[in-house]
Structure formats: C-alpha cells, structure tokens
Specification:
Elements lengths: L3 H19 L1 H6 L5 E2 L4 E7 L50 E7 H12 L11 E13 L9 H15 L18 E21 L6 H21 L2 E9 L3 E4 L1 H6 L8 H15 L6 E8 L6 H18 L3 E6 L7 H10 L6 E6 L5 H9 L4
Parallel strand pairs: 5-6, 5-8, 8-9, 9-10
Antiparallel strand pairs: 1-2, 2-3, 4-5, 6-7
Helix pairs in contact: 1-3, 3-5, 5-10, 7-8
C-alpha cells in the first residue's frame, strides 16, 4: 500500500496537471512564461490552489461573538490608545496568489497531447541511438541502502523468525539482520531510439516584427516539447533569411531583424545543404518548419522554392510545415502559392495561417495532428 504522503503528492500532481491543461490556451496566447529549469524540467506559474478549510456559520446558529453591533465598533472593547478608531483604508482587490510548480518534459507534453488529441509519431528514419536503460525488475541479496527493498526485507526477516520459533504473535516485533536484507537489482538493456532533427527557418526581413517573432518563439517551444517527448535524441537547427540565409543559434534566431528584401529560396537552399551534409534522409526523421509573413521577392523565386521542395526537401522529410504569421506589411502570397500546389495533394506538406497569439494552439494541432 502506498504511503499517505505519496498518495497526497500523486493527487496534487494530478490537480496541478489538470489546472495547467485548463489554462493551456492562456499560457500560450498571453505569453505566460514557462521557464526551463535544467535539461528536462520546467517551472510553470499557476494560480493559488486553495485547500479545504472550515467556514463559520451564520449568526442564527449562535456562538461566541454574536450580538448587536455597528460598523466601526471596536472589537472586545479595544480601541486606539487616544480613544479613536483605527485609521487608513483597506486595500482593494484580492492579493496575488500565484505559485510555481515544476513539470517535466513528459508531463508538459502529455498535457499538450491530451488537449490537442495528438497521436504518437510513427518514425520514418531508420537511424537509432543506442542507449543503456536500467530497469529494476529483480531482487538481490546485495546492493546499496538506497535500493533496499523494505517489503522483501521484512518478509524475509519474518520467515526467518517464524522458522526459528522466535516470532511472538503477542509481541509482533520483526527485526531484520544483515542476511535478511534484499535490494532491487537492475537489468541493463540496450534500447534503440529513433533520431530526429528539427530545422527552423524564419523570415527576418523588415515586415516581420517583434509580435510575429514572439508567435514563432512560442509555437516552436511547444513543437520542440512534443517532438522531444517522441524521440530519445533530437537536433535543433536554426536558419534566418531575408535576401540571403545563414545558420544561427537560438538566441540570434529570435532577436535578429533585417531591413532588406526577401528571397525564400535562400533558406530552402541552405536547408537542403544542411540535410545533405549532416542528415541522411534514410536514417533521420527530418522536420523543416518555415515561418514567414508570406512575402517573397518575385514569382521566379517562388518557382525555385517549389522546385527545391519537390525535388529534395519534401521527399527527404517526415513532413514540411509552413506557418504564415499575419503581418500588416505582408501580402500572404506565398501561402496562396503553396496552397495552390499542395492542397489535398501531398500529405507531407502542412500549411497553417497564424493570425495572432490566439491561433498558436490551433496551428500546433495542424502541424502535429497527423502523427508524422
């Protein structure tokens, strides 16, 4: 039987995860900060969770402190030393009641998956990461105290005392000795896990402002979270482009803004080179994501983009995802061009329009909802 503290902790975790799920759209649309803490933990802010408490009955039930009184009367005859009632005004509104809880990658991904009904991904690539996994499935006679199996130890000590005739039912004290101790023992197995790479591409020309980049940052956070829950090992690469493209780190990806024009083919060309150099499509699960406001320099460059997609990027990838972030300066034409060519014709091409932060969750559902 589980210890009551463990049961209470498990129940609290369920309440926390339920509350996070209820507020998931708010976390995403209002930019609530979910902060990484280490490699596999995140700190999540949430409203105070109230615990049950006693509440006083009404006056008709009697009890201490009943009787007539008027607003401002001192309590228990107490008043200001100068004979005046207390001064000052009460604060307005309820105080801030927020707490922070830690959730793992798996827990947050589970919340996202349940909210969006996301299917598990069926890997395409054959490359496997070999990892050793210890599973404590057996019990041994030696081991460290941290792996001591208390229930098995107690049973062994009880059997010994009964067999030796030293067990007294009237005084059921069981004292294990060194020979009674039992320990959890691990079976080490080598597991093969599929590897994946996510390649983010983003237009950083002048028409993509801070609001559009914040949408991309938030959406990519949750996409990464889900993919990390599906793959043991994952690479994440970042490409920015205006009229030219270059690979950058994550910090630069979300903070760079240029004033030049836009040639989307520059990003797709670099993406192709990256895959050819580092990620054999027969071994890796490849996920290119491109975010833009839909402006491209010319129809000729769009034609080149479609050629790159058809001839290399789409055949090499689990899926190609294009997210068009609405901007007052962007025409949105590139979405129309992609939709005209791939709508209902190619399940490996997924298109999404993201009007504002409220559309992020729906866009994630569009991208990840097919389980590719």
């Amino acid at each position: 039987m589980d210890h009551p503290i463990k049961r209470d902790h498990s129940r609290f975790r369920k309440i926390v995860k339920g509350r996070v799920r209820e507020n998931l759209r708010k976390y995403i649309s209002q930019g609530q900060q979910i902060i990484p803490k280490g490699t596999d933990k995140f700190t999540v802010p949430m409203p105070q969770i109230d615990t049950p408490r006693f509440k006083f009955g009404d006056k008709s039930q009697g009890g201490m402190g009943q009787g007539d009184g008027k607003p401002g009367d001192p309590v228990d005859g107490q008043q200001d030393p100068n004979g005046q009632p207390g001064q000052g005004e009460a604060g307005e509104g309820e105080g801030s009641k927020e707490l922070e809880v830690e959730l793992s990658v798996e827990e947050l991904a589970q919340i996202l998956g349940e909210e969006l009904a996301l299917p598990n991904i069926e890997p395409k690539g054959k490359k496997s990461i070999h990892s050793q996994v210890d599973r404590y499935t057996t019990v041994g006679n030696v081991g460290p105290d941290s792996l001591k199996h208390l229930k098995r130890t107690y049973k062994q000590a009880l059997k010994r005392q009964v067999s030796m005739g030293t067990y007294d039912p009237n005084n059921p004290t069981v004292i294990p000795n060194r020979a009674d101790y039992r320990y959890r023992a691990a079976d080490t197995k080598v597991e093969n896990q599929n590897a994946a790479v996510v390649i983010y591409m983003m237009d950083v020309s002048g028409s993509m402002g801070d609001e559009q980049k914040e949408i991309v940052r938030t959406e990519s956070f949750w996409i990464n979270l889900w993919l990390k829950s599906q793959y043991k090992d994952i690479d994440i690469r970042y490409i920015i482009h205006d009229a030219t493209a270059k690979e950058v780190d994550e910090n630069t990806f979300f903070r760079t803004r240029e004033s030049g024009g836009t040639l989307i083919s520059s990003a797709y060309t670099l993406c192709k080179q990256m895959i050819q150099a580092d990620y054999n499509p027969n071994e890796w699960n490849i996920y290119p994501f491109h975010f833009s406001d839909g402006d491209n320099w010319s129809a000729d460059d769009t034609k080149l983009c479609l050629q790159l997609l058809d001839e290399f990027i789409i055949p090499s990838s689990n899926m190609f995802c294009y997210g068009q972030v609405e901007s007052r300066y962007g025409s949105g034409q590139f979405y129309k061009d992609l939709n005209a060519k791939y709508s209902d014709k190619n399940s490996e091409v997924i298109l999404s329009k993201i009007k504002n932060k409220d559309g992020i969750l729906d866009s994630i559902k569009e991208f990840l909802g097919k389980g590719k």
